[in-house]
Amino acid sequence: MSKFDLFLQQIFNGLVLGSIYALVALGYTMVYGILQLINFAHGEVVMVGALVSLWVSLKLIASGVPGPLVFVLGLTAAVPACMLLGFLIERIAYRPLRRAPRLAPLITAIGVSIVLQALAMMLWGKQYKSVPQLIPAIPLHVGGATISTLQLFIIAVSCVLMAGLLVLINKTPLGRAMRATAQDPTVAGLMGVDINRVISITFIIGSALAAVAGVLVSQNYGIAHYYMGFLLGLKAFTAAVLGGIGNLTGAMLGGVLLGLIESLGAGYIGDLSGGFFGSHYKDVFAFLVLILVLVLRPSGLLGERVGGRA
Amino acid sequence: MSALLEVQGLRVAYGGINAVKGIDLHVAAGELIALIGANGAGKTSALKAIAGVLAPAAGRIIYGGQDVTRQPSFRLVQQGLALVPEGRGIFPQLTVEENLQMGAYCRPNDASVHSDLEHVYGLFQRLFERRSQKAGTLSGGEQQMLAIGRALMSRPRLLLLDEPSMGLAPMMVQKIFETVVQVARDGVTTLLVEQNALLALQVSQRAYVLEGGVITLQGQASDLLKDSKVRQAYLGE
Question: In total, how many domains does chain A have?
Fold first, then answer.
């Protein structure tokens, strides 16, 4: 593989990874935009999405249903399950603390995250589970690099969902109410907006995207386990901060950028360090980015100054 | 005529302070009523309690014949009670037109919303010119126009206005007050809270004077304008 092909290959991998990060980052950023709360349990919703869809898929495959249909049915089970989960997380862990100091919901968020991991471990076991490939991964050659039909599918699904979300937020009365609530909840209430309903809807939409991300990421790597949401959640949170937390376009941009940084970083760290560090250090990059953003530009690439609110 | 709004023994505590210490007032359908008083007299707290933004500590609020005490603001808007908050409360990142559309949030999105939009643009030509601008880029006076226009988009039966003249240049204050009078003449019952007592008394029919959380004077606006205590305390004589 030539140097350019290698570069192109890392770009492809980065785009796939980045579109998944972006989907998850949107959930963090939407909730932060309205409640100024980091929903640290969001990564666990991704995990639940992956495992629910896997559970349904395994049952269906056993009865001989074809792959792509299994994928659709798995998704059809995972998305509503995660929407309900997101709704319940807000009602149980965050709403009672709406007027509490900001640290309190942050602590319950971590609590919810631990509870969900434990529940998933009890339900589905501790071991890594292999995920059957449901979307065909036919390799397509672009120069010397390869991108599979599965990877293209992941990018396409993410793009469609993100475009849909932008239309919903920017063009519909519900989206307008969500933006108004994010800017001034009291005045939004004076317009007749039921703030609690808008907050629930925000969690539900974010969780639906998380469910899709969970299904896609488990298809991409072919594995799922109860702990998969932790690191993915942290990275997606980093992506949201990188783009400017609270900003939707920022979360998308941050996700794709982080995917590219991680992929290129993992690809070249060996050469750059003279073989001292290997590609298994790839997880370092996300947190390097997080630290750099927090030090150099805490408001993120597209964010406004949030210092006063944070 | 029966009262559209009746407030009985309203007490409001705000940040540990008793801001409103038991007031009674009423507004009949079609009236333009002023509630005047110095800064910190409890005017805004009273208005917020009526609009459902603050929960009252005691008392009853009867609107349209129904007890609406402690109803959240979003329910009251659906029943035609609109508050233009102190400091205007526009949504800075939404465009002017989106702000106006937010005003019609609780109405079905039909042709009447569009014609009301035209009506507001007719009242405030400036808003029409700036309809696709972010509302945060408007001047203070334009933001006040927007806040009033937005409240009108809900087709209110009762309009509560909190200090519409605050921080505005005299020319702009005049324009805003002309519109308030116009809106009231079009049949919208209005409760106007103002520090600018002279203007408020000139446009209103009746008025209440609030001092230290209690109503100390009330009556016909024309009588209060002549009252020596009012002239001394609020009209700078």
Answer: 1
Question: Does residue A291 lie within any of the structural domains?
Answer: no
pLDDT tens figures, A257-296:
999 999 998 888 877 777 787 777 788 888 898 899 989 9
Q: Which of A176, A184, A193 sits opposite B74 (nearest CB)?
A: A193
Phi, psi (5° rounding) for residue A112? -60, -40
CATH code at B31-53+78-234: 3.40.50.300
The alpha carbon of residue B134 is apart from the nearest alpha carbon of chain A, in Å, by 13
| Degrees, nearest 5: CA angle B189-B193-B199 | 95
Is A149 within a domain? yes
**Residue of chain B with shortest Cα separation from A171:** B98
The answer to whether the beta carbons of residues B154 and B104 sit under 8 Å apart is yes
CA–chain centroid gap for B64, Å, is 17
Q: Which residue range is the domain that position A86 belongs to?
A: 22-229
Q: Residue B25 contacts by C-beta under 8 Å, 6 or more apart in sequence?
A: B5, B6, B7, B33, B35, B208, B215, B218
Residue B84's φ and ψ, nearest 5 degrees, are -95, 105
Chain A positions in Cβ-Cβ contact with residue B154 (cut-off 8 Å) = 191-192
Contact A179 B91 (CB under 8 A): yes
Q: What digits encode the pLDDT tens for the residues A147-194?
A: 999 999 999 999 999 999 999 999 999 999 999 999 999 999 999 999
Q: Which of B77, B98, B109 sits opposite A190 (nearest CB)?
A: B77
